[in-house]
């Protein structure tokens, strides 16, 4: 059965769209909250090809799907509106302050990156056409196309109000209305007219809010806090219009009087600092940004720089950081090509080649996590090459006129000042990275495999899986969750942890990191598929007390830290922390042998696969 058919049948058999109050998913299950449980046909759902079983627990109707649960979930969202009331993301309270800020920034800006890249490319193409004489700025054709390219940037506060509202849990329509007030024609006329403006006698310093970033984010954050407070106070019968009324008459003036000037001045200040750095030593600035960019991406810290780039474009009409990041992208792509040319391992050659293709178009995760970072030396060669290319780009004073993932198709967004230097810089970083990677080399998996060509002893173990946790060993049959206990998802073992640290049980690649941090999937270098589920029903915490340290696609070694979790708080909250470690492709092995130890430490053997 296909994903579309599975989604359609499941939705129909739980009683239809009107019977679904809410729907979320964890690592393996669709978790329905139903209006009327009697309308759901459990037996028919369990009979579906894509359904493992159905569990009713904690007031939820849980349909166990397995590893492709997220695909079925998305398909249900496409064919119904059951997810539309659940579009609001909870404001993350986990991790440290910096981690929360990075999470906020990524959630607000990520949905806009695709359309920003498209609009930016169109802007660049229009600039090329006018400089070549193919179009004139007075032509109505140019006017129409420029409106299509520039409208996103002009009305950026409107779009940011939508994504910020979803992140902070505010009413999306009220948020858009607040943003609309900031760029309302009459307000713009007041600003341009330089007339004294006040609000009940309070002076208002009007700013130009078109294309701005910081003011609307501050405004929506404050409004989200105000909405939650008001909704607790106001009676249900009137809060649907009283809460928006109060928010509009307070947040709009507050933004114009306080948040707006603070945000605009902060943005102008940041832009001025960036310009000063590039004016002081453009070559050094370009080299440092290019060298550090992929390292920042690995740790997710680069999201803190995205608003700075957008702010520079909004304030100055161009940005000097983005061109240097392009050198990093092309350098890691070049490193992947160097690996492809050098390796004798057929699988690695194929992987590096496909990763290089995606890298050329600006998607470097497969190249970095699957190839260069895993082999270490190619990643370093990429960083060095990026620094050289970044220095050339910085010295050329290259700029970007829009935001977008640097790649072959987005080159037009860099058309303008220093464009020739930009082309030279990315070319140097790309070619140099190929050459360095090929010359420096790396530990080729093919050579490593050839060194172990001794004939295997009879009944040798195919792979040993070590413990990802320190604690007590529990037979899988004894855990309270019948899906895991019945080995429906695969054979394995459970551990009751004594410390809040989860490490990799083998060398491999992370295939799944659930957003709430309570479940992880990985595939080992010997193609064993492992699912680790921290506790039972912990998905209800929506990430609280869980702190993932890896991302999907990341290569890991046995013993590498995957996550930390507050074990004491989880136990105090009443959660069963027995943690199943499941071999989800059990059917590919003759047997899965469990350890006979009662206590294990991390990296001690717990499973032998034959």
UniProtKB/TrEMBL annotation:
GO terms for cellular component: plasma membrane. It comes from the Bacteria. The chain crosses the membrane at residues 101-122, 142-161, 168-187, 199-221, 241-264, 379-402, 414-440. Keywords: Cell membrane, Kinase, Membrane, Phosphotransferase system, Sugar transport, Transferase, Transmembrane, Transmembrane helix, Transport. It is a multi-pass membrane protein. Gene3D superfamilies: Glucose Permease (Domain IIA), Glucose permease domain IIB. GO terms for biological process: phosphoenolpyruvate-dependent sugar phosphotransferase system; trehalose transport. InterPro entries: Dup_hybrid_motif (IPR011055), Glu_permease_IIB (IPR036878), PTrfase_EIIB_Cys (IPR018113), PTS_EIIA_1_perm (IPR001127), PTS_EIIC (IPR003352), PTS_EIIC_1 (IPR013013), PTS_IIABC_b_glu (IPR011297), PTS_IIB_1 (IPR001996). GO terms for molecular function: kinase activity; protein-N(PI)-phosphohistidine-sugar phosphotransferase activity; protein-phosphocysteine-trehalose phosphotransferase system transporter activity. The active site is at residue 26. Residues 103-456 form the PTS EIIC type-1 domain. Its EC number is 2.7.1.-. It is an enzyme of class 2 (transferase). Residues 481-585 form the PTS EIIA type-1 domain. The keyword RNA-binding does not apply. Coiled coil: none annotated. It is found in: Cell membrane. NCBIfam families: PTBA, PTS-II-ABC-beta. This is Beta-glucoside-specific PTS transporter subunit IIABC. It comes from Bacillus halotolerans.
């Amino acid at each position: 059965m296909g994903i579309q058919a599975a989604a359609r049948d499941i939705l129909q058999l739980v009683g239809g769209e009107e019977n679904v109050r809410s729907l979320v998913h964890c690592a393996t299950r669709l978790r329905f909250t139903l209006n009327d449980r009697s309308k759901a046909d459990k037996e028919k759902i369990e009979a579906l090809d894509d359904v493992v079983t159905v569990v009713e627990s904690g007031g939820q109707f849980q349909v166990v799907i397995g590893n492709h649960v997220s695909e079925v979930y998305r398909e249900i969202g496409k064919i119904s509106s059951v997810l539309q009331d659940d579009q609001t993301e909870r404001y993350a309270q986990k991790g440290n302050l910096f981690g929360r800020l990075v999470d906020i920034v990524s959630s607000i800006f990520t949905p806009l990156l695709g359309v920003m890249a498209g609009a930016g490319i169109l802007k660049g193409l229009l600039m090329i056409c006018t400089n070549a004489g193919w179009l004139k700025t007075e032509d109505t054709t140019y006017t129409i196309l420029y409106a299509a390219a520039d409208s996103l940037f002009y009305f950026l506060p409107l779009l940011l109000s939508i994504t910020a509202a979803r992140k902070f849990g505010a009413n999306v329509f009220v948020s858009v209305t607040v943003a609309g007030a900031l760029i309302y024609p009459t307000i713009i006329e007041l600003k341009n007219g330089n007339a004294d403006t006040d609000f009940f006698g309070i002076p208002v310093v009007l700013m130009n809010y078109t294309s701005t970033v910081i003011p609307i984010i501050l405004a929506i954050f404050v409004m989200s806090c105000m909405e939650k407070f008001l909704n607790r106070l106001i009676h249900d019968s009137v809060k649907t219009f009283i809460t928006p009324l109060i928010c509009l008459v307070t947040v709009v003036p507050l933004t114009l009087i306080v948040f707006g000037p603070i945000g605009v001045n902060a943005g102008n200040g940041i832009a001025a600092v960036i310009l000063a750095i590039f004016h002081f030593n453009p070559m050094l600035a370009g080299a440092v940004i290019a060298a550090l960019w992929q390292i920042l991406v690995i740790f997710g810290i680069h999201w803190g720089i995205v608003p700075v780039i957008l702010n520079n474009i909004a304030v100055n009409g161009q940005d000097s950081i983005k061109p240097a990041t392009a050198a990093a992208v092309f350098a890691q792509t070049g490193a992947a090509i160097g690996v492809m040319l050098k390796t004798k391992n057929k699988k690695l050659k194929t992987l590096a080649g496909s990763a290089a293709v995606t890298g050329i178009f600006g998607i470097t995760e497969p190249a970095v996590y699957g190839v260069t970072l895993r082999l270490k030396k190619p990643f370093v060669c990429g960083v060095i090459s990026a620094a050289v290319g970044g220095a050339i780009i910085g010295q050329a004073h290259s700029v970007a006129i829009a935001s977008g993932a640097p790649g072959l198709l987005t080159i037009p967004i860099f058309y303008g000042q220093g464009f020739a230097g930009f082309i030279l810089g990315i070319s140097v970083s790309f070619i140099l990275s190929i050459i360095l990677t090929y010359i420096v080399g790396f530990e080729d998996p093919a050579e490593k495999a050839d060194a172990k060509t001794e004939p295997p002893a009879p009944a040798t173990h195919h792979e040993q899986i070590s413990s990802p946790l320190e604690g007590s060993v529990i037979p899988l049959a004894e855990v309270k969750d019948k899906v895991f206990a019945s080995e429906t998802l695969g054979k394995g073992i459970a551990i009751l942890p004594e410390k809040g640290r989860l490490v990799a049980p083998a060398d491999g690649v992370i295939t799944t990191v659930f957003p709430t941090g309570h479940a992880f999937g990985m595939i080992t270098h010997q193609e064993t598929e492992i699912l680790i589920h921290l506790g039972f029903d912990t998905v209800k915490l929506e990430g609280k007390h869980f702190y993932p340290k890896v991302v999907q696609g990341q290569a890991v070694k046995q013993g590498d830290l995957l996550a930390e979790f507050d074990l004491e708080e989880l136990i105090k909250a009443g959660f069963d922390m027995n943690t199943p470690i499941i071999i989800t492709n059990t059917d590919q092995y003759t047997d899965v042998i469990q350890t006979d130890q009662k206590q294990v430490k991390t990296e001690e053997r717990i499973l032998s696969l034959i």
